[in-house]
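Sequence design from tokenized structure. All designs in this work follow the same two-part layout: the structure record, then the generated sequence. An example of the structure record is given first.
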């Protein structure tokens, strides 16, 4: 093979350099499920089944969304590094694959940057009263339309009763509670504290709350206290995402093709980075869509028509305290996201 022929393949190898930054992508429970598989003439993007959630992601929608957020982050980082790649979706559940990155002739430009990817973070704390400007909401709607989806803007007051019901369902399920505890890193002494999962600081828990969570979610205590009002207590403590006056954005898609959920995940990254650049923060809440008792009402609230269904639900707004004062959720070393 001549030098010229090998160049595109060599440029694919440079994806190893950006894999670590791209892993800053938002992902459910911070399990970082993605895997880059280097083949002779392309790079496959897939997932490791041990990082797929169980009861907390019953339809594996969050898994596919999280793989999409990663693909989009990779493409943004590749564009800035001048690596010419194109994305070829090819979802295959048996091959645990969502698609391939192939060498392209020219690098693609992106309006979003590596700094955006690195800076973005989730916000689970309290919100200011300040409202998200209409222009930011218009832009989100436009970006969604360009990607073949729709964004519905729902007032928090209308969304809140659904969120409360969904939390009740969420905390009432022993499997979901156990999985949340398994991915919670409630003290810096946890062996995986600097690698993955949900840490006490970014869950916005005080030391006492972290301690209480560890205690309440331990299976024997959970079983004993569940009939005595534990679920109601946890629901009250956790429904902050729709408190106050503000808005929730809901991404709606059509049909049931799992590959579309990967594309919706790519859209999540675009929307989130655009909002983040304007100082607007995001708190996704998956269980409103997972809960069989709320998803239909949410669809109605969004005016869903013609086979549309909600895929992502997130509060947007301005944090009441400085999010940058909190250490970010960690990521595993980039080598751990790469196979071969
Ligand atoms: C598909 C998806 C679903 C998510 N669902 C929730 C959720 O239900 N509740 C929540 O607090 N955060 C949720 N998140 C945010 C993740 O927990 C967060 O991205 C992850 O912990 C990494 O933190 P970072 O975004 O600050 O890097 C979700 C993120 C994604 C991409």
């Amino acid at each position: 093979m001549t030098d010229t022929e090998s160049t595109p393949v060599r440029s694919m190898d440079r994806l190893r350099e950006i894999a670590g930054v791209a892993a800053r992508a938002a992902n459910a429970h911070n399990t970082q499920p993605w895997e880059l598989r280097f083949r002779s003439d392309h790079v496959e993007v897939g997932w490791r089944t041990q990082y797929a959630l169980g009861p907390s992601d019953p339809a594996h929608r969050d898994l596919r969304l999280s793989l999409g957020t990663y693909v989009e982050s990779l493409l943004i980082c590749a564009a800035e590094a001048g690596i010419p790649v194109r994305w070829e979706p090819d979802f295959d559940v048996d091959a645990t694959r969502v698609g391939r990155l192939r060498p392209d002739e020219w690098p693609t430009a992106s309006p979003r940057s590596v700094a955006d990817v690195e800076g973005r973070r989730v916000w689970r704390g309290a919100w200011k009263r300040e409202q998200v400007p209409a222009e930011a909401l218009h832009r989100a709607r436009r970006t969604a339309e360009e990607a073949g989806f729709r964004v519905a803007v729902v007032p928090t007051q209308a969304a809140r009763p659904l969120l409360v019901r969904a939390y009740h369902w969420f905390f009432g399920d022993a499997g979901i509670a156990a999985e949340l505890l398994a991915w919670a890193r409630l003290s810096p002494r946890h062996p995986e504290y600097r690698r993955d999962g949900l840490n006490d600081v970014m869950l916005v828990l005080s030391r006492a709350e972290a301690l209480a969570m560890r205690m309440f979610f331990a299976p024997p205590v959970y079983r004993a206290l569940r009939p005595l009002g534990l679920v109601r207590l946890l629901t009250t403590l956790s429904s902050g995402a729709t408190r106050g006056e503000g808005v929730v954005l809901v991404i709606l898609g059509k049909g049931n093709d799992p590959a579309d959920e990967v594309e919706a995940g790519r859209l999540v990254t675009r929307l989130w980075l655009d909002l983040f650049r304007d100082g607007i923060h995001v708190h996704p809440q998956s269980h409103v869509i997972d809960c069989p008792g709320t998803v239909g009402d949410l669809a109605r609230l969004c005016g869903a028509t013609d086979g549309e269904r909600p895929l992502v639900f997130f509060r947007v707004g301005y944090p009441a305290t400085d999010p940058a004062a909190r250490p970010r959720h960690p990521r595993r070393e980039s080598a751990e996201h790469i196979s071969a």
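Residues 3-121+328-339 form a domain with the NADH Oxidase fold (CATH 3.40.109). We note this feature because it recurs in several other targets discussed in the main text.
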